[in-house]
Amino acid sequence: MARCTFLGLGVMGYPMAGHLAGAGHDVVVWNRTAAKMEQWAAEHGGVSAPSVEAAVADADFVFACLGDDPDVRSVAEKAIPAMKPGAVLVDHTTASAELARELDQAARDAGIGFLDAPVSGGQAGAENGQLTIMCGGEADTFARAEPVMDAYAKASSLIGPAGAGQLCKMVNQICIAGIVQGLSEGLHFAKRSGLDPALVIGAISKGAAQSWQMENRWQTMVKDEFDFGFAIDWMRKDLRITLEEARRNGARLPVAALVDQFYADVQAMGGNRWDTSSLIARLERDL
Amino acid sequence: MARCTFLGLGVMGYPMAGHLAGAGHDVVVWNRTAAKMEQWAAEHGGVSAPSVEAAVADADFVFACLGDDPDVRSVAEKAIPAMKPGAVLVDHTTASAELARELDQAARDAGIGFLDAPVSGGQAGAENGQLTIMCGGEADTFARAEPVMDAYAKASSLIGPAGAGQLCKMVNQICIAGIVQGLSEGLHFAKRSGLDPALVIGAISKGAAQSWQMENRWQTMVKDEFDFGFAIDWMRKDLRITLEEARRNGARLPVAALVDQFYADVQAMGGNRWDTSSLIARLERDL
Amino acid sequence: MARCTFLGLGVMGYPMAGHLAGAGHDVVVWNRTAAKMEQWAAEHGGVSAPSVEAAVADADFVFACLGDDPDVRSVAEKAIPAMKPGAVLVDHTTASAELARELDQAARDAGIGFLDAPVSGGQAGAENGQLTIMCGGEADTFARAEPVMDAYAKASSLIGPAGAGQLCKMVNQICIAGIVQGLSEGLHFAKRSGLDPALVIGAISKGAAQSWQMENRWQTMVKDEFDFGFAIDWMRKDLRITLEEARRNGARLPVAALVDQFYADVQAMGGNRWDTSSLIARLERDL
Amino acid sequence: MARCTFLGLGVMGYPMAGHLAGAGHDVVVWNRTAAKMEQWAAEHGGVSAPSVEAAVADADFVFACLGDDPDVRSVAEKAIPAMKPGAVLVDHTTASAELARELDQAARDAGIGFLDAPVSGGQAGAENGQLTIMCGGEADTFARAEPVMDAYAKASSLIGPAGAGQLCKMVNQICIAGIVQGLSEGLHFAKRSGLDPALVIGAISKGAAQSWQMENRWQTMVKDEFDFGFAIDWMRKDLRITLEEARRNGARLPVAALVDQFYADVQAMGGNRWDTSSLIARLERDL
Ligand SMILES: NC(=O)C1=CN([C@@H]2O[C@H](COP(=O)(O)OP(=O)(O)OC[C@H]3O[C@@H](n4cnc5c(N)ncnc54)[C@H](OP(=O)(O)O)[C@@H]3O)[C@@H](O)[C@H]2O)C=CC1
Ligand SMILES: NC(=O)C1=CN([C@@H]2O[C@H](COP(=O)(O)OP(=O)(O)OC[C@H]3O[C@@H](n4cnc5c(N)ncnc54)[C@H](OP(=O)(O)O)[C@@H]3O)[C@@H](O)[C@H]2O)C=CC1
Ligand SMILES: NC(=O)C1=CN([C@@H]2O[C@H](COP(=O)(O)OP(=O)(O)OC[C@H]3O[C@@H](n4cnc5c(N)ncnc54)[C@H](OP(=O)(O)O)[C@@H]3O)[C@@H](O)[C@H]2O)C=CC1
């Protein structure tokens, strides 16, 4: 069993840290807003720490799941110098590949290992311990961290060097942008045509139009229910990071760029916290 | 066993008619280009007819699988008056819902049944007898035709009144347009980022970015292979019909309309017969 | 002075026919809804005719300004056979190039001249006699018709053979689609940024961002006033014709196709009769 | 006459500084690459300075025209502390509004005035002294700087507080993105239709489709000539800054976002330095 620290007990981090404790690891937690770490400690019998530095000092593995680049940078600046040589820092935040490379270098300089390790699977995946983890970093660092991450992962994979985990997550979000917009237009067209969406989905959901989003979201989309899932504010952050990376690597993402603007339409409708499937609301609600 | 006629022995119709014969039905075929129907008759021991009228005269069920609206209209104008009262005409062509309604009316006037019954599953589905059939029409007409169509279908469903089969197929194509463009942008981004696409797909193909297209097309897309599958010329026909229908029903299809133009880019690259997954070629080839 | 007939006394045709009369031509008018032609005859002292055939029988020049392809086709089918050999038919409707070629052939067969001659300049241009006319047809036919059309034109030009006038009008509409959407996004951004639109337009309206639309529409756009001008229903008809033509000639029109869908958004807001500049309402109103 | 310093003698800054000297001001110049400032001093009889600090020490007005945010920030960090109290810093770089607000604050703290003052009019405007200048800042600072900027401006205007000049320039670029893409599609369609572009432009360039871009760029666009003008790399920088600002102010810019991706297509064709009108090359060259 390993000595683990978890930084950031949000929607994702809270249950992830819980699975580490449940798997028998020694877990120290830290969260900016103290109430959450106290609640966690009470619930899981773990230890909360008064500062990032205190939280990480004895850890073999430090996991973080925060918000955006600046959040990670500010926390990592405190964590890295305070970590033991030979320890490993794993960042589960969806952030930029550039930040990952910057943290990787800082970690090397400090004699510690680093993985960028964004996840997919959402809140449900975090709660059920069924996340998919996409990692960038050294093979031996990955080999050491993977068994620990198994506490909350159904699959982890090493995609390439530092930053590759983040880049892989960006591919994931690009694919989702196209799928969800296509599905939204399809369901909107079906409703406009007077078709019964259940019959339509029954007919098309086994073939070339099938997608995870179709199977898992069509019912709530048709019912105009979006009060759950992966929030548009997060999605737009991810698309922002992705479009910025595309400026560097030269990739052209016309539909991802357009869908990002359509998500801004949904934000203007008040949908900041709605699930990504709410793209359909742009089409259905303004009538 | 039923007396069946099949009109149009193209990539789809040829094997579909073959499955009817294989299931023990009496099959008469007709094809505009005579060579194909002679080949079919030789291969399947069926009968070819010299004209549409002759082909349909004794049939209980007449199936058609032709090209576009005008093709269906010209053939149906000959077939309907020549059919027996009480027979059923099933149109497997992907065509407009308006044509379906028009043919339904003409069939009613002639005392015969009609189903618009576009299929999905592609050439492979036609050859393996594993098509999905989306039908519009009367319930009792569907009930009579379904067991016969079972010769080449893995699933048939009645979506609604005349035209509903075509509308359902349009929903299918709308969804595909978004999915394939998203997947193309994702794989293009992955390559531009220097990632190994196999590792990326391994990591993301079980979650929220999953799609039939991802599972069945990523490898050929990455290898720039498009010489198979569902041709762009057909896809643009389907999107044209869909966008015209959207003008009538008021649906807004921004990404389907845009992807239709991107398919025109691929046509300009010489891709008229390439698979729909060739949207990625726009992004990869011009470098 | 010529013997002229005008078919179609709508928003455009009514004042155009009036200018013909004002210029001293003998004018016979016909309109499907009789009240309008009676009103016109009363106002201008001209003659209204009970049928298309009667209206055109003695004319040297027959002008039409109707709605869409089917309207023109149904009227022309009556007019062409009833016209005198050597007379000229000028169609001012914005319609397809294919229809123009079809009418040109029918006119040739009947021994009459034909011009497709869509106009720009809007209702104001028709009322002030300041239209721009884009013509397709034979040079000598154009030479004969131009002096007569001068009654309501500030400029007429022969662009090429039959259909070229319509194709030129399509170029016009494609350009407008991009300009108005760009201007809408620009003004929307200015308002969101808290800038005074008048100061912004003052600063940018002489340079590389200048357009007729900016000069003539920014004020009403900022005030959310669209109850005038060129109706979205007409614009969508024109874009439909244009996108269909692009399918034939292989042109790629991604932004025109997208803006056409945005116009559908405005129609869904109730904007069928609003001016084309109402694209900004999609951005401003849903907040 | 004023004591002026000009920082950054690029395509724009070099002739702008020249006009200051020509108007009789005392001009000190500084440029990162020394050769250019020596050339300038030789040509204009002005003085070059060995460092930013030395260049600005005695100036009443310091003008800068550099590349992007980080360039301005690094130069301003040296300039502001070295400037005389009461002097004015004018930044002609197209940069972010956030940077403008940050520099405005730093200038206030140092007791100097600040204007963000991006320009339009391009290289030709800089050379002819006919730029348009859009300013953000205090009215009295603007009142002091305007007469000096008159050396190279045909019009300067104060749009609002610090940042407003940059925001106004963003509106300009948003409008251009839509106009140029619309014009590209229009000319591409005209060529595909076999029309003579000169006749088309002759017919439509006085009406609702008119734009500065149409008047000034159609000929080079049709000839596929882009080796001049405002470079795509600069345009993408400007659109990046604009799209980032839109994330903050909530504006939706679907076509600007899409056109930005189309510019990336042109970059992938090798067009980094081509004029913004080269959007048409995407449509014309790949055939
Ligand atoms: N939610 C989801 O379904 C998924 C989310 N993700 C990604 O995971 C990450 C976390 O998401 P989620 O858990 O939903 O987010 P939450 O907003 O629920 O949690 C964010 C956590 O980060 C902490 N935090 C944020 N900024 C700072 C800072 N500057 N300094 C210190 N702590 C900070 C917050 O602390 P405090 O409690 O004090 O606010 C909180 O613990 C994001 O990058 C998201 O994109 C990835 C896949 C799915
Ligand atoms: N309005 C504008 O600003 C501009 C319009 N145009 C184009 O000019 C054309 C006319 O526009 P506008 O005048 O505004 O349209 P209106 O709707 O005002 O007028 C249409 C005219 O066509 C007649 N008409 C329509 N269909 C038929 C038919 N099937 N049989 C006989 N008559 C018919 C109508 O007759 P009835 O009175 O009986 O309905 C009416 O006289 C359109 O193609 C439009 O796109 C071009 C530039 C600008
Ligand atoms: N060109 C045009 O048509 C227009 C340009 N603009 C804007 O004006 C600005 C300048 O454009 P332009 O003159 O064409 O650009 P150039 O590339 O020709 O010149 C850029 C200038 O900035 C200097 N510079 C860049 N980075 C730094 C740095 N980090 N430290 C010090 N100096 C630096 C360069 O110095 P060095 O010589 O050492 O490289 C050079 O003098 C840009 O923001 C552009 O967007 C606005 C309207 C039109």
UniProtKB/TrEMBL annotation, chains A, B, C, D:
Keywords: NAD, Oxidoreductase. One of its GO terms (biological process) is organic acid catabolic process. InterPro entries: 3-OH-isobutyrate_DH-rel_CS (IPR002204), 6-PGluconate_DH-like_C_sf (IPR008927), 6PGD_dom2 (IPR013328), 6PGDH_NADP-bd (IPR006115), HIBADH-like_NADP-bd (IPR029154), HIBADH-related (IPR015815), NAD(P)-bd_dom_sf (IPR036291). Residues 163-281 form the 3-hydroxyisobutyrate dehydrogenase-like NAD-binding domain. The active site is at K169. Belongs to the HIBADH-related family. This is Oxidoreductase. It comes from Maricaulis virginensis.
